[in-house]
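Reviewers asked in the last cycle whether our approach scales beyond single polypeptides. To address this, we selected a multi-component target totalling 181 residues and predicted its structure end to end. The input consisted of the following lines:
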Amino acid sequence: MAGIDFASEELLAFDLHPAHRLYLARRYGLQGVDWIDTPICILLSTPLVRYYQDSTDNLDFELYMIIATAKESIATVRKRFGTHPPFPSNFDNGPFCNQHTTCKKVWFEKWFFGILRRIHHPSEPFPLALIPKTLTDMDHRGMNAECKQFVLNWLQDDCTHVQKEEELIQETIATIRNLFK
Ligand SMILES: [Zn+2]
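The resulting structure, written as structure tokens, was:
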């Protein structure tokens, strides 16, 4: 299948609509990340209204439903952060801190202005998996450094919602790769 491989390399140079890429991947058995994983990620982060005519020609109903259902689950996970800023509910095991009210205040302010706005950005959705790294790099002046580290560890290890979006994306890729076999 060297010819197909060569042609697929050439085709990637064009800016093909992600739905069209998936169509070609299925039709010609193209397995590359650029043909399956990347277009799925793009479709999952693009609002349905912006799929255009091209997608309806190239996505069959089954594929469309898999993607639409995953989008719905992802939207639910993202919305949850709007009402529930992640913070360890039981801080008893955390570092001793005599200014913890201030820590919380700084944390929630930074969350609201630095993260939540990005999560709800209408055109450039911020991947939830980037939350821990973004918060690590953020200046939480006024917050006890040990408390910050404690919350970051908790976010990484125990806050399942932060990883949920990435899990849903990977599940969707696996489902579609299976469908294309
Ligand atoms: Zn504190």
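Residues 87-158 form one domain. We regard this as preliminary and will revisit it once experimental data from Aim 1 are available.
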